[in-house]
Recover the amino acids of this structure.
């Protein structure tokens, strides 16, 4: 069975800022210190962490959800994971739920 990792994390920022952290090449590059090229549309491809991560956007709702098919480039050729990020505003600040399948 493929493991599922589920995590909820609260940040003191907006859901839109968290969305941009993942979906804006400049912001991602600045935050990780490594080059990123991110297509901002469904079907768009991306690389991050200096091409150590690659993938494709499956579903995007600005400030609400990102679903990506992704893999570390050192993984076996057919190994991929699905990342689901759901952003929501909560009383103590935005909440990000991270679900990784595979």
């Amino acid at each position: 069975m493929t493991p599922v990792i589920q995590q909820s994390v609260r940040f003191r920022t907006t859901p839109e800022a968290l969305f941009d952290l993942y979906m804006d090449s400049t912001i991602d590059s600045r935050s990780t210190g490594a080059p990123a090229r991110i297509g901002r549309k469904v079907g768009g491809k991306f690389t991050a962490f200096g091409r150590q991560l690659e993938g494709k956007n499956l579903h995007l709702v600005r400030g609400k959800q990102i679903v990506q098919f992704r893999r570390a480039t050192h993984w076996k050729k057919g190994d991929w994971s699905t990342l689901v990020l759901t952003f929501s505003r909560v009383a103590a600040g935005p909440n990000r739920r991270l679900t990784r399948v595979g």
